[in-house]
Amino acid sequence: MQEFVGVAMSVEVRQHRNTYQPLGLLAELTHRCPLGCPYCSNPLHLDQRAGELDAATWARVFHEAAALGVLQVHLSGGEPGARRDLVEITAAAHAAGLYGNLITSGVGISASTLGKLVEAGLDHVQISVQDSGADSADTIAGYKGAFARKNTLANEVVRLGLLLTINVVVHRANIERIPAMVELALSLGASRVEIAHVQYYGWALENRAALMPEREQVTRAAAQVEELRRLHHGRIVIDAVVPDYYARYPKPCVGGWGRRSLNVTPSGKVLPCHAAEIIPGLEFWNVKQHALADIWENSPAFRAFRGVDWMGEPCASCPRRDIDFGGCRCQAFALTGDATATDPVCHLSPHHDVVAKLAIAGADVPYVYRRLASGRPSSTAIAEITTR
Ligand code: SF4
Ligand code: FES
User: Fold this and answer.
1) Atom 6 (ligand 1) nearest CA
2) Dihedral sign, CA of 328, 334, 338, 344?
3) How, if at all, do strands 72-76 and 24-28 pair?
4) More confidently predicted of 385 and 221
5) Secondary structure of the chain: what % helix, strand, coil (to 5)?
6) What residues contact 356, with CB distance under 8 A and at least 6 apart?
């Protein structure tokens, strides 16, 4: 039985009510995954299966999220298909009135499970593809046969009448094939393709040298995306996330810390962003002990960088401080050792030279693949998922 302290929560919430309201909740249902993508944003130390929240707790979290104003839940992982109770969890999200988006590797969800998810009220599916061709895609994923399985699931999603987004993470090994990846998304019947350059947290930070493209490649890719948007206007929506390290200003990471979204980890910790645990000294509260509203309003981690009071110069007096919120706290910490620093991606940061040096550090070196919580290579995990 989970401990729950709703009464104490209501007092605290009145004390600290802030003006921000979350719109999206990332539900990391598990860290288990059959793939081993070298840019995975999951932490290096993955939550164990035994500590994962049960479906009843997720249902309670979804209802609390809806009461807080959340509109959309992203059922994610790891690979959410590794959860035996995914249908039950999806139904709970639907019952809470949330728009349910399944973010899947495409490996580990059968056609029959997908049918049940649709019956449970799933609204949308997002499938990641690693490249436009099977060999390269499977190499990047660290799993032979992944590309074929993704294609099969994508076809099934469209056949069942769900909206499909194809997500492509772009890096050194596939950046030259953006047009081919958009063609693939079109051929699969996707209504949207998201082209996101690697963000260097978690495993991507570990693999930064192997993943970092050259500046010329990034410039060419940006022009290609614009051309593809013109070419395919009205057929598919193309979203693009520019690579931080080549930008002049940082991105408004997660829409600003503690302003728009929250992440719940497999074990129930609630984070302002998926990488927040890399910042030492932050205190994260858990849905096992606190109501979501209490965590949103009062947890030390959410309050640490909310608003502008924590900012030093140059952000504190900068006219863009309410546009990009000083950039990414996790990146600031990763690159300067100080989570309150201006994101070094910003050309106004006194540490901007660090980014300039890293941006030319790409090299053809082997990947360090993401491992399972058990320490086994991800490629052995498919048996665990398909035989359950
Ligand atoms: Fe954004 Fe700070 Fe740079 Fe201004 S100085 S653009 S607020 S990161
Ligand atoms: Fe944590 Fe950007 S990833 S604030």
Assistant:
1) 320
2) negative
3) parallel
4) 221
5) 40, 15, 45
6) none
Gyration radius from the chain CA atoms:
20
Nearest partner of 180 among 242, 130, 245, judged by Cα: 130
Residue 374: band (very low, low, confident or very high) from pLDDT cuts 50, 70, 90: very low
CA of 348 to the centre of ligand 1 (A): 7
Please name which ligand lies nearest the alpha carbon of 324.
1
What's the CA gap between 283 and 45, in Å, rounded? 17
Is-above-0.70 flag for pTM? yes
Q: What is the DSSP letter of 210?
A: H
- Supply the pLDDT for residue 313: 96
- Which residue reads 């249908």 in tokens? 87
Q: How confident is the model at residue 40 (pLDDT cuts 50, 70, 90)?
A: confident
Tokens found for residue 221: 């890719």
For residue 331, the ligand 2 atom closest to its alpha carbon is 2
Q: Is the dihedral of CA 359, 259, 257, 277 positive or negative?
A: negative
Please count the CA atoms within 13 angstroms of the CA of 119 that sit on its side-chain side: 9
More confident residue, 161 or 203: 161
3-state secondary structure of 25: strand
Q: How many helices (H) and strands (E) does the chain have?
A: 16, 9
Long-range contacts of 90-93 (CB under 8 A, 24+ apart): 90/117, 90/120, 90/121, 90/122, 91/120, 91/121, 92/55, 92/58, 92/59, 92/62, 93/27, 93/58, 93/62, 93/121
Pocket of ligand 2 (CB under 6 A): 201, 253-254, 257, 273, 275-276, 328-330
| Residues 46, 31 contacting (CB under 8 angstroms) | yes
Comparing CA positions, the residue from 247, 221, 225 lying closest to residue 237 is 225
What are φ and ψ of residue 64, in 5° steps?
Answer: -65, -35
pLDDT at site 241:
79
Integer Cα distance of 271 and 289 in angstroms: 15
Q: Which helix (H) or strand (E) holds 155?
A: helix 146-159
pLDDT tens column, 1-14 = 333 333 333 334 44
Residues 286-337: pLDDT tens digits? Answer: 999 999 999 999 999 999 999 999 999 999 999 999 999 999 999 999 899 9
Place of tokens 């393709």: 193
